[in-house]
Amino acid sequence: MCDASDYVVDAVLGQTKDKKHHAITYASRALTRPQLKFATIEKELLAVVFAIDKFRSYLVRAKVIIYSDHATLKYLLTRKDDRPRLIRWILILQEFDLEIRDKKVVENLVADHLSRMQIEDKHDLPINNYLRDDTLLKV
Is residue 126 exposed (0-12), middle (13-18) or buried (19+ Cβ within 10 Å)? Predict the structure, then answer.
C-alpha cells in the first residue's frame, strides 16, 4: 500500500495469507522542498517508486500488487510522452511485475494514517544533553 500527502510519502509492505492482509514493515519519508511542489498524482507515483526502491530486495521476481487511492496511476504508466522525471520513474517500475489496484481511502487506512501524521516542529522539542558520569565511564 502506498500513499502520499502534502509533506510525506509512505509505504506498507504486506503479504496476503488466507485472504487477510498482514503488514510486514512500514516506511515513510518527508518530501524535499522541490518535491513539495509536485502535483498530487506525481506525489502518488513518487510514493510507489519510493516503495519499490525501499523494498526492492523483497520484490525481485515476485508478483507485486500495489494498492493506491489514485486510479489515475494506471493511466500515468501508459502515457508515452511526458516529463523526463516521470519517464525515469516509469522505467524503474517496468523492472517489476506490477499490478496497480485502486483502493478506497476508507480501506487504505494504514498507509493513509502514516502519510497524515503531524510532524511537530523539531526546533520546539527540548534537547536533553545531560549525560550521567557513570554511563560516560562505561563507554
Answer: exposed
Q: How many CB atoms lie within 10 A of CB 66?
A: 19
Angle formed by the axes of helices 40-54 and 84-93, to 10°? 40
Query: Which set of grid coordinates corresponds to residue 27?
Result: 516506511
Cα–Cα distance for residue pair 70/44, rounded to 1 Å = 7
Q: pTM for the complete prediction?
A: 0.71
C-alpha cell of residue 86: 516521470
Q: How many CB atoms lie within 10 A of CB 35?
A: 15
Give the distance, in angstroms, between the CA of residue 77 and the centroid of all CA atoms in the same chain: 17
Instruction: Encode pLDDT of 49-66 as tens digits.
Output: 999 999 998 888 889 888
Which cell is 135 given? 554511563
Helix (H, G, I), strand (E, B) or coil at 10: strand
* Cα angle: 130, vertex 133, 139; to 5 degrees: 100
Closest of 11, 19, 8, 25 to residue 68, by C-alpha: 11
